[in-house]
Design brief:
Blueprint: E1 3-8, H1 23-29, H2 32-38, E2 42-48, H3 54-59, E3 67-68, E4 71-72, H4 74-91, E5 99-103, H5 110-122, E6 132-136, H6 145-150, H7 162-167, H8 174-177, E7 196-199, H9 208-216, E8 220-222, H10 224-229, H11 231-243, E9 249-254, H12 276-287, E10 292-298, H13 309-323
Parallel strand pairs: 1-2, 1-5, 5-10, 6-7, 6-9, 7-8, 9-10
Antiparallel strand pairs: 3-4
Helix pairs in contact: 4-5, 11-12, 12-13
GO molecular function, one term: arginase activity
Protein name: Arginase family domain-containing protein
Pfam families: Arginase
């Protein structure tokens, strides 16, 4: 039996279109809590964030925002993420070995999630000094404002800059990279090439400058062609690399890693993604590891799935994966 805490983070402040703020509700409608209980797990706590302050709750809702110096909605997104960090520090517990499931929301939630996890683990008598990350996403999210400002086609949304802020890629926003929602307790970057694997992304999505950054910094990458060749083997390879280094691993799962032609659940379409079965097979490998202690589910837009058939498939894959934990 695994103890599980479910935390809903209903923000869409950093993304392209409205809808993601209802993802947690849709995942519950698809039976996540009931199915986990039926599988023999204990759901020890559930929390819905962004309810403490009216201004923050309002900022978390998507609204049109101009692109200013290559960025959209900077201040409201930062307000939301700092509030999420504060609430997570209050509500999370890792002492009983629980698995924590975070229901987004857009990709920016990963910043306060990792920051809060580090804060809590740092305060232990025998602290875990680092956390591993599996970044399972259709893109590498290494955009920076200058790139977005220089291109008419670049969106300037902040979820496309998530890893730039986590890794402090040169050119990222100082307001984000140094904020409490995006830093370790000592003020350093949350993600480094030594603690993260980029998994399943379309290799044609990153720009040349993104590939240069990945290569020059020695980042661990397993892109779409490698994962499609054998999803289970690729997942085992990524997991083995992290398990040999870390006792606490966070799995970030953006549903846009799945091909939108087959599975159009994601908020923003990616048409060169994994097959749904491949993505779910990899998920089951990752979630079967007792060292994978937390998971974020992001970019689910229920507006794209009125019958909840795709959301249900995601929920069922998560439940199957957690059922395999020893």
């Amino acid at each position: 039996m695994t103890k599980i805490q479910i935390v809903t983070i209903a923000t869409e402040a950093g993304t392209h279109f409205p809808g993601q703020s209802r993802a947690g509700e849709a995942i519950y409608e698809a039976g996540i809590e009931t199915k986990l209980l039926k599988s023999g797990h204990e759901v020890v706590a559930t929390s819905t964030l962004l309810g403490r302050a009216t201004a923050v709750a309002s900022a978390a809702k998507w609204q049109p925002s101009p692109k200013l110096d290559g960025v959209r909605n900077e201040q409201k997104t930062l307000l939301v993420l700092n509030d999420v960090y504060d609430e997570l520090v209050d509500c999370l517990d890792t002492d009983d070995g629980r698995f924590i499931l975070f229901l987004g929301g857009d990709c920016t939630i990963l910043q306060p999630v990792l920051s809060a996890v580090h804060t809590i683990l740092h305060g232990k008598k025998q602290p875990i000094h680092d956390v591993g990350l599996i970044y399972m996403d259709g893109d590498v999210d290494l955009s920076v404002p200058a790139e977005a400002a220089a291109s008419i086609d670049a969106t300037g949304v902040l979820d496309a800059m998530t890893m730039s802020h986590l890794m402090r890629r040169p050119g990222c926003l100082p307001s984000f990279s140094t904020a409490r929602c995006s830093s370790r307790p000592d003020g350093s970057a949350l993600v480094t090439p030594q603690n993260a694997v980029f998994f399943g992304f379309d290799p044609l999505q990153p720009s040349a400058s993104h590939w240069v950054y990945l290569a020059e910094n020695g980042c661990k990458v397993l892109s779409w062609p490698t994962v499609r060749a054998d999803a289970v083997a690729a997942a085992k390879s990524a997991l083995s690399w992290l398990e040999s280094r870390f006792d606490f691993i966070v799995l970030h799962f953006d549903v846009d890693v799945i091909d939108s032609g087959e599975f159009p659940l994601a908020n923003y379409p990616h048409y060169a993604g994994l097959a749904a079965g491949e993505a779910f097979a990899a998920l089951e490998v990752f979630l079967g590891s007792p060292k994978v202690r937390a998971m974020t589910i992001t970019e689910v837009n229920p507006n794209n799935d009125p019958e909840r058939t795709m959301v249900t498939q995601v929920v069922d894959a998560v439940v199957r994966g957690l059922k395999g934990r020893k």
